[in-house]
Specification:
single chain, about 375 residues, mainly beta, 28 strands
Length: about 375
């Protein structure tokens, strides 16, 4: 399947983080709303907004600093590792990876012992433990959606939309606390994400208040996992996990998907279905594919979804050989009901024809 190219054009004044990495080099999730494309880079604490300026170009880059909208668990300069965004009920939902990370050794360093010691160290970043919602307000003058900390509800007089996040601390949150007792996931919470440990990559929000959370890892005997939760606001303005009817566990459902050993990179709701972007759970080049999960929103209890129940729609090319480690499809936005836009982490030079530009690919969904 031949994709249609789209250009994402960024503002050079907004595009570099403190380490000098360009936002286009670490795209991790994408979400289309009206004429706006919301995207994030996994090594920042910002959400980026672009606007459709021509038939296949998103530009007019605007950046929102999340430290001004939320109470980040750690220093506002520490990355959130945003790996999922969803939209429902006039809110933008965002989620961090919730994963641990292992240091990368330098094979060319003269001190081998020092590099082995580096490989043994596992680190946590408190900002990664973020699950939050931020009010989305449509500016009638510009036609753009804007992120604000608080705003009147557009259809419920006397009600306010308020930014909120899941109750937690600098070392955990309520989601990890309940998963710490889970028979399938407990052993993986102490393992870094790139080692098939616990690693969130993908979020879909529904109008009835549910969140579907995709896990890149762990993958258990070839089965990937989606968690279904229902966050509610408590009297203190914090998000807490509500009980989920029909689940084996009180506060979440588990849906295991037979994806041939792949983990999840992105989730997108389409009617009662969910589109899945799937790829390797480990840090390697491997098959990346888009699936349709029919009737995903209508499952009354925990589930095992066999490969026969999933529709494999198409594969997405990835780096290999001279481009090994590049062009890793990480984000997927619904352009409309018939096509998706794929954005890439570590894009090749061929995708960066001009400074501050990067090429994304639009694929037609099979009927």
């Amino acid at each position: 399947m031949r994709p249609q190219p789209y250009t994402l054009r960024f503002n050079p004044k907004l595009s570099l983080n403190q380490a000098g990495k360009h936002v286009r080099d670490g795209l991790s999730t994408a979400l289309r709303m009206g004429n706006n494309l919301w995207i994030s880079c996994d090594e920042r604490t910002t959400i980026e907004r672009l606007r459709l300026t021509s038939s296949r170009t998103f530009a007019e880059h605007c950046s929102y600093e999340l430290a001004k909208l939320l109470d980040l668990p750690a220093d506002e300069a520490a990355e959130i590792d945003i790996e999922g965004m969803g939209e429902a009920g006039h809110y933008l939902w965002i989620i961090g990876s919730h994963s641990l990370k292992r240091k990368q050794p330098d094979p060319d360093h003269a001190d081998v012992a020092k590099q082995l010691d580096k490989l043994a160290k596992v680190k946590s970043d408190p900002n990664r433990y973020l699950l939050a919602r931020i009010p989305l307000v449509l500016n009638p003058e510009t036609g753009d959606y804007e992120l604000v900390k608080e705003a009147p509800h557009p259809t419920k007089p006397g009600h306010l939309l308020r930014a909120a996040q899941l109750h937690g601390s600098t070392s955990s949150n309520e989601l990890l606390d309940v998963l710490g007792h889970d028979a399938h996931l407990k052993p993986f919470l102490a393992i870094p994400g790139k080692d098939n440990g616990f690693d969130i990559e993908g979020l879909a929000a529904t109008t009835d208040g549910r969140l579907f959370i995709g896990l890149r890892g762990p993958v258990l005997r070839g089965w990937a996992l989606v968690l279904e939760v229902v966050p509610r606001e408590d009297k203190h303005g914090r998000l807490r996990l509500d009980k989920v009817p029909g689940s084996t566990n009180t506060y979440y459902k588990k849906h295991f998907l037979e994806l041939g050993g792949m983990g999840l990179r992105e989730l997108r709701q389409l009617g009662s279905d969910i589109l899945l972007l799937a790829g390797p759970t480990m840090d390697l080049d491997g098959t990346i594919a888009v699936y349709r999960w029919p009737n995903a929103l209508q499952l009354p209890q925990d589930s095992l979804i066999s490969g026969k129940q999933l529709q494999r729609l198409f594969d997405v090319p990835h780096g290999a050989g001279p481009t090994a480690g590049q062009d890793k499809a990480e984000g997927m936005a619904l352009l409309d009901d018939t096509q998706v836009l794929i954005v890439f982490d570590s894009p090749t030079d061929a995708r960066k024809a001009k400074p501050h530009h990067v090429r994304a690919d639009a694929y037609q969904l099979p009927a």
